[in-house]
Design a protein that fits this description.
16 strands; 12 helices; globular; 3-stranded antiparallel beta sheet; single chain; mainly alpha; 396 residues
Protein backbone atom coordinates (compact mmCIF):
# COMPACT_ATOMS: atom_id res chain seq x y z
CA UNK A 1 0.00 0.00 0.00
CA UNK A 2 2.81 2.37 0.87
CA UNK A 3 4.44 1.77 -2.51
CA UNK A 4 1.19 2.57 -4.34
CA UNK A 5 0.75 5.76 -2.27
CA UNK A 6 4.27 6.86 -3.12
CA UNK A 7 3.69 6.07 -6.80
CA UNK A 8 0.45 8.05 -6.82
CA UNK A 9 2.25 11.08 -5.38
CA UNK A 10 4.96 10.82 -8.01
CA UNK A 11 2.41 10.62 -10.81
CA UNK A 12 0.34 13.51 -9.47
CA UNK A 13 3.46 15.62 -9.06
CA UNK A 14 4.35 14.89 -12.68
CA UNK A 15 0.82 15.75 -13.76
CA UNK A 16 1.05 19.09 -11.97
CA UNK A 17 4.08 19.81 -14.13
CA UNK A 18 2.10 18.86 -17.24
CA UNK A 19 -0.80 21.13 -16.28
CA UNK A 20 1.60 23.97 -15.58
CA UNK A 21 3.38 23.45 -18.89
CA UNK A 22 0.10 23.66 -20.81
CA UNK A 23 -1.10 26.85 -19.16
CA UNK A 24 2.28 28.55 -19.41
CA UNK A 25 2.48 27.77 -23.11
CA UNK A 26 -1.10 28.23 -24.31
CA UNK A 27 -2.91 30.72 -22.06
CA UNK A 28 -0.88 33.93 -22.39
CA UNK A 29 -2.41 36.54 -24.70
CA UNK A 30 0.59 38.12 -26.38
CA UNK A 31 -1.60 40.32 -28.59
CA UNK A 32 -4.07 41.96 -26.21
CA UNK A 33 -2.46 41.40 -22.82
CA UNK A 34 -3.44 39.15 -19.97
CA UNK A 35 -4.66 35.71 -21.00
CA UNK A 36 -6.63 34.54 -24.00
CA UNK A 37 -10.34 33.88 -23.65
CA UNK A 38 -10.88 30.58 -25.43
CA UNK A 39 -9.28 27.56 -27.07
CA UNK A 40 -11.44 24.84 -28.58
CA UNK A 41 -11.24 21.08 -28.06
CA UNK A 42 -8.40 20.84 -30.56
CA UNK A 43 -6.49 23.59 -28.75
CA UNK A 44 -7.11 26.12 -31.51
CA UNK A 45 -7.34 29.69 -30.27
CA UNK A 46 -10.71 31.34 -30.94
CA UNK A 47 -9.98 34.85 -32.26
CA UNK A 48 -11.46 37.80 -30.36
CA UNK A 49 -13.03 35.62 -27.68
CA UNK A 50 -14.23 37.51 -24.63
CA UNK A 51 -12.53 36.94 -21.28
CA UNK A 52 -14.24 35.83 -18.10
CA UNK A 53 -13.42 36.73 -14.52
CA UNK A 54 -13.69 33.09 -13.43
CA UNK A 55 -10.98 31.95 -15.83
CA UNK A 56 -8.73 34.87 -14.93
CA UNK A 57 -9.06 34.58 -11.15
CA UNK A 58 -8.53 30.82 -11.37
CA UNK A 59 -5.38 31.41 -13.40
CA UNK A 60 -4.14 33.84 -10.75
CA UNK A 61 -4.99 31.36 -8.00
CA UNK A 62 -3.33 28.45 -9.79
CA UNK A 63 -0.03 30.14 -10.61
CA UNK A 64 0.12 31.55 -7.07
CA UNK A 65 -0.80 28.26 -5.39
CA UNK A 66 1.67 26.21 -7.40
CA UNK A 67 4.42 28.73 -6.61
CA UNK A 68 3.50 28.59 -2.91
CA UNK A 69 3.52 24.77 -3.05
CA UNK A 70 6.74 24.42 -5.02
CA UNK A 71 9.15 27.12 -3.89
CA UNK A 72 11.59 26.15 -6.62
CA UNK A 73 8.95 27.32 -9.12
CA UNK A 74 8.48 30.71 -7.50
CA UNK A 75 10.78 32.56 -9.89
CA UNK A 76 9.14 31.47 -13.11
CA UNK A 77 5.58 31.58 -11.74
CA UNK A 78 5.78 34.93 -9.98
CA UNK A 79 5.97 36.64 -13.38
CA UNK A 80 2.79 34.90 -14.57
CA UNK A 81 0.96 35.54 -11.30
CA UNK A 82 1.95 39.20 -11.49
CA UNK A 83 0.61 39.30 -15.05
CA UNK A 84 -2.70 37.78 -13.97
CA UNK A 85 -3.06 40.16 -11.04
CA UNK A 86 -2.23 43.18 -13.17
CA UNK A 87 -4.76 42.23 -15.82
CA UNK A 88 -7.58 41.59 -13.35
CA UNK A 89 -6.83 44.92 -11.70
CA UNK A 90 -6.80 46.76 -15.03
CA UNK A 91 -9.68 45.08 -16.87
CA UNK A 92 -12.07 43.58 -14.33
CA UNK A 93 -11.97 45.90 -11.32
CA UNK A 94 -14.91 48.31 -11.01
CA UNK A 95 -13.41 51.50 -9.65
CA UNK A 96 -16.83 53.19 -9.46
CA UNK A 97 -19.08 50.74 -7.62
CA UNK A 98 -16.51 48.25 -6.38
CA UNK A 99 -16.23 44.54 -7.08
CA UNK A 100 -15.25 42.79 -10.28
CA UNK A 101 -17.07 42.55 -13.60
CA UNK A 102 -18.21 39.21 -14.99
CA UNK A 103 -16.75 39.55 -18.50
CA UNK A 104 -14.62 41.78 -20.72
CA UNK A 105 -14.05 41.69 -24.47
CA UNK A 106 -10.84 40.51 -26.11
CA UNK A 107 -9.27 43.94 -25.67
CA UNK A 108 -10.22 44.20 -21.99
CA UNK A 109 -13.28 46.47 -22.21
CA UNK A 110 -16.22 45.58 -19.92
CA UNK A 111 -18.73 43.38 -21.76
CA UNK A 112 -20.87 42.23 -18.83
CA UNK A 113 -20.73 44.40 -15.72
CA UNK A 114 -22.99 42.28 -13.48
CA UNK A 115 -21.80 41.50 -9.96
CA UNK A 116 -22.00 37.74 -9.52
CA UNK A 117 -21.14 36.79 -5.94
CA UNK A 118 -19.47 33.63 -7.19
CA UNK A 119 -17.07 35.89 -9.10
CA UNK A 120 -16.37 38.15 -6.11
CA UNK A 121 -15.58 34.99 -4.13
CA UNK A 122 -13.06 33.78 -6.68
CA UNK A 123 -11.43 37.19 -6.73
CA UNK A 124 -11.06 37.05 -2.93
CA UNK A 125 -9.71 33.49 -3.13
CA UNK A 126 -7.18 34.33 -5.85
CA UNK A 127 -6.05 37.60 -4.27
CA UNK A 128 -5.56 35.91 -0.90
CA UNK A 129 -3.40 33.18 -2.42
CA UNK A 130 -1.49 35.75 -4.46
CA UNK A 131 -0.86 37.78 -1.29
CA UNK A 132 0.82 34.73 0.26
CA UNK A 133 3.13 34.69 -2.76
CA UNK A 134 3.71 38.42 -3.20
CA UNK A 135 3.34 39.93 0.27
CA UNK A 136 1.95 43.07 -1.36
CA UNK A 137 -0.30 44.90 1.10
CA UNK A 138 -2.49 46.39 -1.64
CA UNK A 139 -3.47 42.86 -2.64
CA UNK A 140 -4.66 41.97 0.87
CA UNK A 141 -6.45 45.32 1.15
CA UNK A 142 -8.33 44.72 -2.11
CA UNK A 143 -9.32 41.21 -1.00
CA UNK A 144 -10.69 42.62 2.26
CA UNK A 145 -12.58 45.38 0.42
CA UNK A 146 -14.25 42.72 -1.71
CA UNK A 147 -15.16 40.82 1.45
CA UNK A 148 -16.83 43.91 2.89
CA UNK A 149 -18.80 44.45 -0.33
CA UNK A 150 -20.05 40.87 -0.31
CA UNK A 151 -21.02 41.14 3.35
CA UNK A 152 -22.76 44.48 2.77
CA UNK A 153 -24.77 43.63 -0.31
CA UNK A 154 -25.05 39.86 -0.63
CA UNK A 155 -25.37 38.60 2.92
CA UNK A 156 -29.02 38.37 3.78
CA UNK A 157 -29.37 39.07 7.47
CA UNK A 158 -33.08 38.30 7.74
CA UNK A 159 -32.90 34.68 6.55
CA UNK A 160 -29.11 34.21 6.52
CA UNK A 161 -27.08 33.16 3.52
CA UNK A 162 -25.85 34.99 0.44
CA UNK A 163 -27.81 36.18 -2.56
CA UNK A 164 -26.53 35.18 -5.98
CA UNK A 165 -26.11 38.28 -8.11
CA UNK A 166 -26.63 42.00 -8.57
CA UNK A 167 -26.54 44.73 -11.19
CA UNK A 168 -23.37 46.70 -11.78
CA UNK A 169 -24.30 49.14 -8.98
CA UNK A 170 -25.27 46.31 -6.56
CA UNK A 171 -28.99 46.88 -7.07
CA UNK A 172 -31.24 43.79 -7.46
CA UNK A 173 -31.19 41.79 -10.68
CA UNK A 174 -33.95 39.57 -12.04
CA UNK A 175 -31.84 36.84 -13.64
CA UNK A 176 -29.39 35.69 -10.98
CA UNK A 177 -28.23 32.51 -12.70
CA UNK A 178 -24.57 31.64 -12.72
CA UNK A 179 -24.98 29.83 -16.06
CA UNK A 180 -27.78 28.94 -18.44
CA UNK A 181 -28.11 25.43 -17.05
CA UNK A 182 -28.72 26.65 -13.48
CA UNK A 183 -32.04 27.47 -11.85
CA UNK A 184 -32.74 31.15 -11.27
CA UNK A 185 -32.53 30.68 -7.51
CA UNK A 186 -31.77 33.35 -4.92
CA UNK A 187 -29.35 31.11 -2.99
CA UNK A 188 -27.22 28.26 -4.28
CA UNK A 189 -24.90 25.72 -2.75
CA UNK A 190 -22.25 26.34 -5.42
CA UNK A 191 -21.86 30.04 -4.68
CA UNK A 192 -21.86 29.50 -0.91
CA UNK A 193 -19.21 26.80 -1.32
CA UNK A 194 -16.82 29.16 -3.04
CA UNK A 195 -17.51 32.06 -0.71
CA UNK A 196 -16.59 29.69 2.14
CA UNK A 197 -13.46 28.59 0.31
CA UNK A 198 -12.46 32.21 -0.31
CA UNK A 199 -13.06 33.28 3.27
CA UNK A 200 -10.94 30.36 4.51
CA UNK A 201 -7.85 31.75 2.79
CA UNK A 202 -8.80 35.37 3.51
CA UNK A 203 -8.95 34.60 7.23
CA UNK A 204 -5.56 32.93 6.98
CA UNK A 205 -3.99 36.18 5.74
CA UNK A 206 -6.01 38.72 7.76
CA UNK A 207 -7.07 37.01 11.02
CA UNK A 208 -9.90 39.55 11.02
CA UNK A 209 -12.70 38.77 13.47
CA UNK A 210 -15.34 39.75 10.90
CA UNK A 211 -13.98 37.14 8.48
CA UNK A 212 -13.94 34.47 11.19
CA UNK A 213 -17.56 35.21 12.10
CA UNK A 214 -18.63 35.00 8.45
CA UNK A 215 -16.61 31.82 7.92
CA UNK A 216 -18.13 30.05 10.93
CA UNK A 217 -21.57 31.15 9.78
CA UNK A 218 -20.98 29.65 6.33
CA UNK A 219 -19.97 26.30 7.78
CA UNK A 220 -23.14 26.36 9.89
CA UNK A 221 -25.20 27.09 6.78
CA UNK A 222 -23.72 24.06 5.08
CA UNK A 223 -24.45 21.84 8.04
CA UNK A 224 -27.97 23.17 8.66
CA UNK A 225 -29.30 24.26 5.25
CA UNK A 226 -27.49 22.55 2.39
CA UNK A 227 -26.68 19.16 3.89
CA UNK A 228 -29.48 16.60 3.92
CA UNK A 229 -28.71 13.92 6.51
CA UNK A 230 -31.53 11.75 5.12
CA UNK A 231 -29.63 11.04 1.91
CA UNK A 232 -26.06 12.35 2.53
CA UNK A 233 -26.28 14.85 -0.31
CA UNK A 234 -26.13 18.64 -0.47
CA UNK A 235 -29.16 20.41 -1.93
CA UNK A 236 -28.25 22.90 -4.64
CA UNK A 237 -30.97 25.52 -5.11
CA UNK A 238 -33.09 27.56 -2.68
CA UNK A 239 -35.25 30.66 -2.60
CA UNK A 240 -34.64 33.53 -0.18
CA UNK A 241 -36.53 31.75 2.60
CA UNK A 242 -34.56 28.52 2.16
CA UNK A 243 -37.29 26.59 0.42
CA UNK A 244 -35.62 23.99 -1.78
CA UNK A 245 -36.06 24.43 -5.52
CA UNK A 246 -35.72 21.15 -7.40
CA UNK A 247 -34.02 18.00 -6.20
CA UNK A 248 -30.92 17.64 -8.33
CA UNK A 249 -27.66 16.69 -6.63
CA UNK A 250 -24.21 17.30 -8.06
CA UNK A 251 -21.83 14.47 -7.23
CA UNK A 252 -18.76 16.64 -7.73
CA UNK A 253 -20.06 19.33 -5.40
CA UNK A 254 -20.98 16.73 -2.77
CA UNK A 255 -17.45 15.39 -2.53
CA UNK A 256 -15.81 18.81 -2.90
CA UNK A 257 -17.95 20.24 -0.11
CA UNK A 258 -16.84 17.83 2.59
CA UNK A 259 -13.17 18.68 2.39
CA UNK A 260 -13.70 22.42 1.92
CA UNK A 261 -15.97 22.43 4.99
CA UNK A 262 -13.31 20.66 7.04
CA UNK A 263 -10.67 23.13 5.87
CA UNK A 264 -12.94 26.06 6.70
CA UNK A 265 -13.55 24.75 10.22
CA UNK A 266 -9.86 24.04 10.75
CA UNK A 267 -8.92 27.45 9.35
CA UNK A 268 -11.27 29.11 11.80
CA UNK A 269 -10.03 26.96 14.66
CA UNK A 270 -13.60 26.21 15.73
CA UNK A 271 -13.35 22.81 17.44
CA UNK A 272 -17.10 22.17 17.42
CA UNK A 273 -17.31 22.80 13.69
CA UNK A 274 -14.25 20.62 13.04
CA UNK A 275 -15.99 17.78 14.88
CA UNK A 276 -19.28 18.28 13.03
CA UNK A 277 -17.76 18.61 9.56
CA UNK A 278 -15.57 15.56 10.05
CA UNK A 279 -18.67 13.74 11.29
CA UNK A 280 -20.49 14.02 7.96
CA UNK A 281 -17.46 13.48 5.70
CA UNK A 282 -17.46 9.67 5.78
CA UNK A 283 -21.24 9.26 5.29
CA UNK A 284 -21.12 11.62 2.29
CA UNK A 285 -18.09 9.80 0.87
CA UNK A 286 -19.80 6.42 1.37
CA UNK A 287 -22.88 7.60 -0.52
CA UNK A 288 -20.66 9.10 -3.19
CA UNK A 289 -18.94 5.77 -3.79
CA UNK A 290 -22.32 4.01 -4.00
CA UNK A 291 -24.12 6.47 -6.28
CA UNK A 292 -21.57 8.53 -8.22
CA UNK A 293 -18.58 6.26 -8.75
CA UNK A 294 -18.23 3.15 -10.88
CA UNK A 295 -15.03 1.14 -10.57
CA UNK A 296 -12.96 1.57 -13.72
CA UNK A 297 -15.38 4.17 -15.09
CA UNK A 298 -14.83 7.27 -12.99
CA UNK A 299 -17.33 9.72 -11.49
CA UNK A 300 -20.68 10.64 -13.03
CA UNK A 301 -21.99 14.20 -13.08
CA UNK A 302 -25.35 14.55 -11.35
CA UNK A 303 -28.70 12.97 -10.51
CA UNK A 304 -32.31 14.10 -10.14
CA UNK A 305 -33.43 12.46 -6.92
CA UNK A 306 -37.12 12.88 -7.85
CA UNK A 307 -37.03 11.24 -11.29
CA UNK A 308 -33.93 9.11 -10.78
CA UNK A 309 -32.49 10.43 -14.04
CA UNK A 310 -28.68 10.44 -13.97
CA UNK A 311 -26.29 12.50 -16.08
CA UNK A 312 -23.64 9.90 -16.82
CA UNK A 313 -21.15 12.25 -18.46
CA UNK A 314 -17.73 12.35 -16.81
CA UNK A 315 -16.68 15.96 -16.36
CA UNK A 316 -13.03 16.72 -15.69
CA UNK A 317 -13.38 18.52 -12.37
CA UNK A 318 -15.38 15.92 -10.32
CA UNK A 319 -12.61 13.37 -10.95
CA UNK A 320 -10.12 15.78 -9.35
CA UNK A 321 -12.37 16.74 -6.43
CA UNK A 322 -13.26 13.09 -5.81
CA UNK A 323 -9.65 12.19 -5.17
CA UNK A 324 -9.27 14.98 -2.60
CA UNK A 325 -12.58 14.39 -0.83
CA UNK A 326 -12.00 10.65 -0.62
CA UNK A 327 -8.55 11.26 0.83
CA UNK A 328 -10.13 13.28 3.63
CA UNK A 329 -12.61 10.45 4.24
CA UNK A 330 -9.70 8.02 4.42
CA UNK A 331 -7.79 10.18 6.89
CA UNK A 332 -10.83 10.25 9.17
CA UNK A 333 -11.90 6.61 8.85
CA UNK A 334 -8.79 4.68 7.86
CA UNK A 335 -11.01 2.69 5.49
CA UNK A 336 -8.85 1.49 2.60
CA UNK A 337 -11.77 1.48 0.16
CA UNK A 338 -11.38 5.24 -0.13
CA UNK A 339 -7.71 4.98 -1.08
CA UNK A 340 -8.51 2.19 -3.55
CA UNK A 341 -11.14 4.39 -5.18
CA UNK A 342 -8.68 7.30 -5.42
CA UNK A 343 -6.17 5.11 -7.25
CA UNK A 344 -8.87 3.79 -9.56
CA UNK A 345 -10.24 7.27 -10.38
CA UNK A 346 -6.73 8.48 -11.08
CA UNK A 347 -6.08 5.57 -13.47
CA UNK A 348 -9.37 6.32 -15.22
CA UNK A 349 -8.42 10.00 -15.46
CA UNK A 350 -4.99 9.20 -16.86
CA UNK A 351 -6.47 6.98 -19.54
CA UNK A 352 -9.61 8.90 -20.49
CA UNK A 353 -9.71 12.48 -19.19
CA UNK A 354 -6.16 13.70 -19.76
CA UNK A 355 -5.61 14.85 -23.35
CA UNK A 356 -2.29 13.23 -24.21
CA UNK A 357 -2.27 14.80 -27.67
CA UNK A 358 -3.05 18.48 -27.03
CA UNK A 359 -2.39 18.80 -23.31
CA UNK A 360 -4.38 19.43 -20.12
CA UNK A 361 -7.71 17.60 -19.58
CA UNK A 362 -10.84 17.19 -21.68
CA UNK A 363 -13.75 19.17 -20.28
CA UNK A 364 -15.99 16.10 -20.36
CA UNK A 365 -16.46 12.71 -21.93
CA UNK A 366 -19.55 10.54 -22.33
CA UNK A 367 -20.18 7.23 -20.59
CA UNK A 368 -18.31 5.48 -23.41
CA UNK A 369 -15.25 7.66 -22.78
CA UNK A 370 -15.66 9.72 -25.94
CA UNK A 371 -14.71 13.40 -25.56
CA UNK A 372 -17.23 16.08 -26.48
CA UNK A 373 -15.38 17.83 -29.28
CA UNK A 374 -17.59 20.95 -29.06
CA UNK A 375 -16.26 21.73 -25.57
CA UNK A 376 -13.42 24.13 -24.80
CA UNK A 377 -9.95 23.19 -23.71
CA UNK A 378 -9.58 26.70 -22.29
CA UNK A 379 -12.55 28.97 -21.69
CA UNK A 380 -14.88 30.77 -19.32
CA UNK A 381 -15.13 27.68 -17.10
CA UNK A 382 -12.23 25.53 -18.28
CA UNK A 383 -9.22 26.44 -16.21
CA UNK A 384 -6.25 25.00 -14.26
CA UNK A 385 -7.93 25.22 -10.85
CA UNK A 386 -9.56 21.90 -9.89
CA UNK A 387 -6.95 19.57 -11.34
CA UNK A 388 -3.95 21.64 -10.26
CA UNK A 389 -5.38 21.96 -6.75
CA UNK A 390 -5.97 18.21 -6.46
CA UNK A 391 -2.35 17.60 -7.45
CA UNK A 392 -1.18 20.15 -4.87
CA UNK A 393 -3.31 18.82 -2.00
CA UNK A 394 -2.50 15.16 -2.65
CA UNK A 395 1.26 15.69 -2.93
CA UNK A 396 1.74 17.73 0.26
Amino acid sequence: MKDSEAQLKVELSEELENILKYWKEFSVDKKNGGFIGQRDHYNKEIPNASKGIILNTRILWSFSAIANHKKEKEGELRFLADRAYGYIKKAFRDDIFGGVFWEVDAKGNPANRRKQIYAQAFAIYALSEYYILSGEEEVKEWAFKLFKLVEKYARERENNGYLEAFQEDWSPIDDMRLSEKDKNSAKTMNTHLHVMEAYTTLYKITKAEAVKEALDNLVEIFLEKFYDARNQHFNLFFDKQWNREGNIVSFGHDIEAIWLMIEAAKGSGNKELIYRTQGIAVPVADTFLTEAYISGKGVMNEKDLDSGATDTDRHWWPQAEAMVGLEYAYQISGDKKFREAITDIWKFTQKNIIDHENGDWFLRIDENNRPYVQEDKLGMWKCPYHNARACIVLTK
